[in-house]
Amino acid sequence: MRPMVHRRSAYIFVALCFIGTLSMGQRRDDVARYVNAMLADTPIEEDLRELCDEIGGRASGTMANLRAVEWGMQKFKDAGVRASTDQFTMPGLWLEKNARAAVSGALSFEPRIAAMPYSAGTNEDGVTAELINIGRGTEEDFRWVGNLIQDKFILVETEELVDIDGLFREYEEAAAIEDRAYAAGVKGIVYMGSRRDILLYRHNASRGLLNTLPMVSMARIDAQRCARALRAGESLTVTLTLDIESGGPYPLENVIAEIPGGDKKDEIVIIGAHIDSWDLGTGANDNGCNVAMMIDLARQLKRLGIVPRRTIRFALWNGEEQGLYGSMGYAQKHAREMDNHVMAMSIDIGSGRINGFFTGGRPEVYSMTQKVLEPIKGLGPFESADVPIVGTDNFDFMMHGVGNLVANHEPQLYGPTYHAASDTYDKVDLQSLKINSAIIAAVTIGFANADRIPYARQSREEIEALVETTDLEVQMRMFGIWDQWIEGKRGRVE
Ligand SMILES: [Zn+2]
Question: How far, in Å, from the CA of 287 to the mean position of ligand 1?
Fold first, then answer.
């Protein structure tokens, strides 16, 4: 990482280039002024430090999460930006208080584990069963072990995760493995950690709140030690002792800040990042960096006195990690105003340089995105992909037919630190974060100031057609939200 002074002079250099090239017309001037303000020296790094280091990991349902919401409200207030909390209902509480494992038999040691979110808990004596290696957990692997695994723990081997493709593969494989494991009547699942050495992380059980099995990820080197013993024909018994705090529905809050629009103020551009995080690390790349960005975007827009044509809302979504519940709650509560929402953008893939956008399988959104990126092509190159993305807070807007974007980023450290103990401030690419904030500023003001939005909200039929012609079903199943769409609990119903 370069020292601060060099970074700042780099911003100023880029900023000067913009002043030189963008001078035509008031609206074009808004883009240049906004972009330059984001590239100049702002408190974004200090905000990120406070959120990650002082508040720390902020899983939904914890005191730290409540503090983060208060902190976000205060930040908008200090910036002179109108903000309010937006309450919604979390369907259930899940927090790990303590998780221990003990292996006995041919080996005797205490492997490092983390409970998977929505894992069942155990009593204080734990649950004990034989551990059987199921390889990668493919259909063939399960067929091969047959009913040998009934009432046993299975050990699922994994590949080391290096990038975002690996992450999606992990989600996809886990959903299928868990279906097979349920069918086979296992006692519980032990995943070999997909991160290096002893790095622990949380990966949601695919059935979410409906999960009833104990499930853990075990530090990679510990799980490999078990796998070697099992492959050598030894037998192992494992005891999992999982102290889980669980409970029914509870209220939680998003923070929604707003810069009112001008001549098209009834139309809304909403951009957001989630303020909740997992708790092993401090939620820096996922997603503190982009929360700090939202606050800075609102702050600079207010400071510049720019009145966008459309209203811009800056959302700090909550309850994201446990099922995208904050944005779902907003979309349900504001269902009648969804026609007015012309754009919902989510920034949630870390702090690597933004290299394009996922435009949702909607060619008009894609071409509009190309257009708003044009004035900042010097911050590119950008290559967008016109595909729908499930897994962050654009989801419910997409299923309500609203034009939506997810920023795509250079992978940087996003994959290896994802939901892991290593997701801390020092992993954030601060220089890219600044440039990303300028990119998002240009895209946001581009949509907010456009003469015309070249697409309308999709009807239920059009959304169904999108589902049928893309891999949306596969993605929704991966995240355990397919049934909610089918049952009419999420998305546009009429
Ligand atoms: Zn995230």
Answer: 5
